[in-house]
Amino acid sequence: MRIQRPVVAAVFAVGLLGALLLQPRAAFAQSKETLGISSVAPTPSLKAAMAAKKLSLGRVVEAFDSQLNARISATRKFEIVSRSDLKDVLKEQELGQSGNVDAKSAAQSGKLAGAKYVLSTTLDDFEDSTETMKFPSLNKIGIKRKVRVAGVAKIYDSTTGALKESYAFRADRKDDRSDDATLEKNAELTDALLAEAVSEVATKIATRVADVVFPVRVLAKTEKQLTINRGEGGGLALGQVWDVYALGEELLDPDTKESLGRQEVKIGKAKISMINPKFSLADILEDTGIDKGAVLRLPQQTKN
C-alpha cells in the first residue's frame, strides 16, 4: 500500500514533537554558572582583637554564612557548589580559616571543586557594643547599642585564575533608647541590630556577585518601557533609577593580552516600575539608543 507524502510528513512531525517532549527540561533551560562560596572568615588580626568576645564574633560569622548563601541563591543566577566540597579543597591547601586566599589558590580550589567562580569573604572589622546610662531623676535607663560589620568580598574566575572583583562592604546599625530595659531586652536589641547589619551586607555582596558575572541587561524594549533580566532577590528596588549603557569593543591589555572589559557608552536612564519573580520592568526616562542587550548599572557602580 502506498502512503501519501502528507501522511508521512504528519507522522514525522508527530514523532519529532514526541521526541522533543521527552527530552529533559534541563536541555532547554538556560545554563547557570557554578559558584563556590567559601566560609566567611575573620582575618587573623580581627580574631586576635576579638579574643575576649569569641562568642560574639562566632555568632556574626555563623549568621553571615547563612545569609550569604540565602541571598546568592535568591538571585536565581548560580548553581552553588557544595560548601563541604569547597571546604575540603581549601583545607587541603591550608587556606580554610586563614582568610588569606590569593587569586591562584582560590582559582585552583574552584577548579578542583567544580566551580567556575569562587567567592571568598573575609571580615576585617566587627563591633558589638553597649553603653548604658542611668537617669535616676527620671527613673529611666538609656541604652546605646552599636553594631558594625565590615570586610572584603573577592570573586575569582577559576578558568583564568584572575581576580574579577574585590568589593569592600560595611554596614552600621545603632539604636538609642531609654526605658527600664532588662538584660533580656538588651539581648533582643543586639540580635535585631546584628541581623539587620548582616542581612544588609549579604544582600550587597550577592547583588555585586550577580552584577559582575551577569550584568543587568535589557531583554526587550517597547516605546516607553524596558524588560530586564533581574527579578526578586536581584538587588532591585521600586523607584531605583539605573543608567543604561551600550557595550562596545573588548579592551585587551597590549602587554598581557588580559581582557580589561568592554567599552561602555551611556545611552539612557530607566526607573524600576515593577519587580516580578524572574524579570522586572523599568520606565524609560532618557533614551539615545537603548536596544536589546544594553547593560544597566546603578550610578554609583558606573565605571570611570
How would you describe this structure to a colleague?
- With 304 residues, this protein is an alpha+beta fold.
- The chain has 2 domains: 33-213, Rossmann fold, CATH 3.40.50; 216-301, FlgT, C-terminal domain (Thrombin, subunit H).
- It is 32% helix and 38% strand.
- The chain is built from 6 helices and 12 strands.
- The chain has helices at 5-22, 44-49, 54-74, 83-92, 103-113, 183-213, and strands at residues 33-37, 41-42, 78-81, 117-135, 140-157, 162-179, 216-221, 225-228, 241-252, 259-275, 280-287, 295-297.
- Strands 1, 2, 3, 4, 5 and 6 form a 6-stranded mixed beta sheet that branches. A 6-stranded antiparallel barrel has the order 7-8-11-10-9-12.
- A hairpin with a 4-residue loop joins strand 4 (117-135) and strand 5.
- Helix 4 (83-92) crosses helix 5.
- The longest helix is centred in the middle third of the chain and has 31 residues, at 183-213.
- It is globular, with a radius of gyration of 25 Å.
- Residues 7-30, 92-99 and 180-185 have low confidence and may be disordered.
